Amino acid sequence: MTEPIISELRDRIKIIYFNRPESYNSFDYESIRLLSQILLYTANDENIMGVVITGKGRAFCAGGDLKWIYNSGMKYGSAFYRLASIYHQCINEIRKMPKPVISAINGLAAGGGFSISLACDFRVMEKSAILRQAYTSNGLSIDGGGTYTLPRIVGLARALEIASFDMPINADKALEWGLVTEVVEDGTSLDRAISMLNEIMKRPLSSFSSIKRLMNESFNTPFETQLENERYALSLCADHPDGKEGIEAFIEKRKPHFNKGL
Fold this sequence. Notes:
Elements: E1 5-10, E2 13-18, H1 29-43, E3 50-55, E4 59-61, H2 66-71, H3 76-96, E5 101-105, E6 108-110, H4 112-119, E7 122-126, E8 130-132, H5 146-154, H6 156-165, E9 169-170, H7 171-176, E10 182-184, H8 189-200, H9 205-218, H10 223-239, H11 241-251
Parallel strand pairs: 2-3, 3-5, 4-6, 5-7, 6-8, 7-10
Antiparallel strand pairs: 1-2, 8-9
């Protein structure tokens, strides 16, 4: 039996694939449970320095599998409640991941797949790919943190427009609205995501992790508290081997060598 989520390690980069191409990589309970396990393992593996999430076949991820909901034997609401409990663990793992996470959007990203892409730190989208909110067209409400991330990326008015009209968003529009970091030729999103991670990995992972956490927390933190959090994080980074290396390399006018212990 083919696993619905598969992964590989390539030069310290974990590549995670949605692997149900026959259903546009929609996820059922087993799929999302496997994804949660892989993300949890990845977050705690010091040998992994970056993550790419992408899809096999023509789609990135079409979101929750409505056929699974229909055939679950539960009330629809109960089935979604159960599915979302694990799905939201995945979103939290992506948001808290102390390493960069990039979605390589190789095709349709809809519903929960759209929300997963928004949870990632960066998004590389292929020219023919499509983003679609999808929930409201099926009489549903957005989950996966989409109501949190979407208005913060595009603003409240644009987010409500996307939710209300559920129009397909092509790559050019996605780039214009800030929904994606970069648009690339078809078939190249994975390679570009890996290239971006290799560029980030030239710099200290400790700095990236600290800044990502601070930025994510900033939306719910009073300004004075945020300043204290920044001061504390700066002190920790300065005492980290990478911080010491960066300071000493600057003084000695040489190129720093980061992530030695990883």
